TrEMBL record:
Belongs to the CdaR family. Residues 46-196 form the GAF domain. It comes from the Bacteria. This is Helix-turn-helix domain-containing protein. InterPro entries: CdaR-like_regulators (IPR051448), CdaR_GGDEF (IPR041522), GAF (IPR003018), GAF-like_dom_sf (IPR029016), PucR_C-HTH_dom (IPR025736), PucR_C-HTH_sf (IPR042070). It holds the Pfam family HTH_30.
């Protein structure tokens, strides 16, 4: 038990006066117990000065050579010496015995004093090191009293003599009284220390609560709150957010973000699992886990640290809910703006231009439109969240139109962004087809082109088809039948394809390269990796099989058209030759 310093000084002053001027009747046992109790009440919690006062008074009171006090350690199951008075051997203060063993172990185990007249003959599983220390100290007789309170073992109090002494019942009673008073004092001191630690924990937790709450109310944002949390906990902290705007961040013990870690996490999101030792708490809102906080390098946390981490998770959860609400408004506004822009076929009103500018779009510049659908319809919601997440920093829109995901991107980076989307989606195991328009200042035209390209990509299971790829034959997309197109391809290319299939030849590819190079022999030879004589032989065979003059410009045009139609049919997923093509 701790007493105010002024009260302690008064008690010690009274004790000193009593010792210098003892009361009439002598220094009897009762007065000694009073003085010991006064000292105990004036001592520091767990300090050696408390234990020194106890053993010093016991040694003087019972006229022994050595007095010592040992405290029980329930976790280790031992009784270990804390302080000794009168001991000569350096190892004396390091003695310890298991519960139930030795003199102190027996006294603690039985709950009553133990008198040993001849220590050299006492065994009771006394550890050899303890027996040797007592022998070198010259201890002959020992009286030991257990210190216990409410059934809880506190320790043991000893008095020893270097001569054989018969400790009587009065000595045992007196030592037991001092031991009981010491046990009460020590237990009270421990309780006070526990209460003090709990008070300090609550105060520190409240201070952390205030700091984190103030950061949230000031609009600091998720990242800054997590950085402040890492600083408060004085450890490396990981923040992982799953939904909304997913992110993986790491903060040093001083709250500084590890940018290199964030870059690695963005490039390899699949490696989000941590192998480091850590204490992890979930970030939960509305019964949904939004992410996790990890205190790295920790096997366990002190109570104040754990409460701080848990409160940090709560504050970040609230911040993520606010963030999600802002995103929902942002996405709704993007959808409304897109629908109005699509309905505007001619001049865009200045009011729409102003609204678009607030979202980072300059409608005076050309934009591309992309139409996206997942190959697996069950991934539609995931794809929408994925696209919104990765295009949020781009100047453009993400919306739904006629049940499909639609994106509007600046012309300068449109195709590159879609290609990057495919690469990132593949790592997240999301596959989708996309039709991309040409660059236009009128979004209604761009949407029609994107839909046409998307229809072709969807039917042919292509990941990306841009409207430019369709070439001059894109008008065929409006056709409901492909019979005439198939007929043209079969008529002109069928004999060559059949010949190549039967004889493992390369006449059709050779003719295609010859036409693409405008009939230039050296270029054709280079593309086909053949000799000039081989080219002449193949061209002769082609003329013989088809019965056509390849030097005639009209014939060349017909064959070029046939090859272009074949490529277009293959984009549509239609092959006039089956496995032969």
């Amino acid at each position: 038990m701790v007493i105010e310093s002024r009260s302690r000084a008064v008690l010690l002053d009274r004790l000193t006066t009593a010792e210098e001027h003892p009361p009439p009747g002598g220094d009897d046992a009762y007065q000694a117990l009073v003085r010991i109790g006064t000292h105990l009440q004036a001592g520091e919690v767990h300090g050696d000065d408390v234990f020194g006062l106890i053993v010093g008074h016991v040694k003087k009171l019972l006229d022994g050579d050595v007095a010592w006090l040992a405290l029980a350690d329930p976790a280790e199951g031992t009784v270990r010496v804390q302080v000794a008075a009168g001991a000569l051997c350096p190892d004396f203060a390091r003695m310890e015995v298991p519960f139930g063993a030795g003199i102190g172990g027996a006294a603690v185990d039985r709950g009553r004093p133990i008198v040993v007249r001849d220590a050299t003959r006492y065994d009771n599983d006394l550890p050899a090191a303890v027996a040797d220390t007592l022998r070198r100290e010259g201890i002959q007789s020992i009286l030991c009293a257990p210190m216990a309170m409410d059934g809880a073992v506190v320790g043991a109090l000893y008095i020893g003599s270097r001569e054989v002494v018969a400790f009587d019942s009065a000595a045992s009673a007196l030592l037991s009284s001092v031991a009981a008073q010491a046990a009460v004092t020590i237990q009270n001191a421990r309780l006070y220390q526990t209460l003090t630690e709990q008070r300090d924990t609550l105060q520190q937790a409240f201070e952390a609560h205030r700091i984190l709450t103030d950061a949230s109310l000031s609009g600091a944002g998720v990242e800054k709150i997590a950085a402040e949390l890492g600083r408060l906990m004085r450890c490396v902290l990981d923040l992982e957010v799953y939904g909304g705007i997913p992110r993986s961040l790491r903060f040093a013990a001083d709250g500084v973000a590890d940018l290199a870690f964030s870059d690695r996490a963005a490039q390899q999101p699949a490696k989000a699992d941590r192998d480091e030792a850590c204490v992890s708490v979930p970030i939960i809102a509305g019964g949904t886990e939004l992410g996790r906080l990890r205190a790295l390098g920790m096997e366990f946390l002190a109570p104040v640290q754990l409460r701080t981490l848990e409160h940090g998770a709560t504050v970040i959860a609230l911040e993520l809910v606010k963030e999600q609400a802002v995103l929902e408004v942002e996405w709704r506004m993007q959808g409304e703006l897109f629908e109005e822009l699509v309905r505007t076929s001619e001049t865009v009103p200045e009011s729409l231009k102003a609204r678009a500018a607030r979202m980072g779009m300059d409608l005076d510049l050309p934009h591309r439109v992309g139409v996206l659908t997942p190959f697996d319809e069950a991934h539609d919601a995931r794809l929408m969240e994925f696209v919104r997440r990765h295009l949020r920093s781009a100047s453009g829109l993400v919306s739904r139109h006629e049940g499909r995901i639609v994106i509007v991107l600046a012309d300068i980076d449109g195709q590159d962004l879609v290609t990057e989307l495919h690469q990132r989606a593949a790592r997240a195991q999301i596959a989708f087809s996309c039709g991309l328009s040409r660059a236009h200042t009128r979004l209604d035209i761009a949407v029609r082109e994107a839909n046409a390209a998307h229809g072709l990509a969807r039917r042919s299971r292509h990941m990306l088809i841009s409207y430019e790829q369709l070439g001059p034959l894109r008008f065929l997309l409006d056709s409901t039948e492909t019979g005439e197109t198939l007929g043209v391809v079969e008529e002109y290319l069928g004999p060559l394809i059949a010949h190549d299939a039967q004889r493992h030849g390369d006449l059709a590819p050779t003719l295609r390269a010859f036409l693409a190079n405008g009939g230039h022999h050296p270029s054709t030879c280079a593309d086909c990796h053949i000799h000039a004589s081989t080219l002449k032989y193949r061209l002769g065979r082609i003329a013989a099989i088809t019965g056509q003059d390849l030097n005639d410009p009209t014939t060349r045009f017909h064959y070029r058209l046939a090859f272009e139609l074949l490529a277009f049919l293959e984009l549509l997923g239609v092959s006039p030759f089956g496995q032969r093509s």
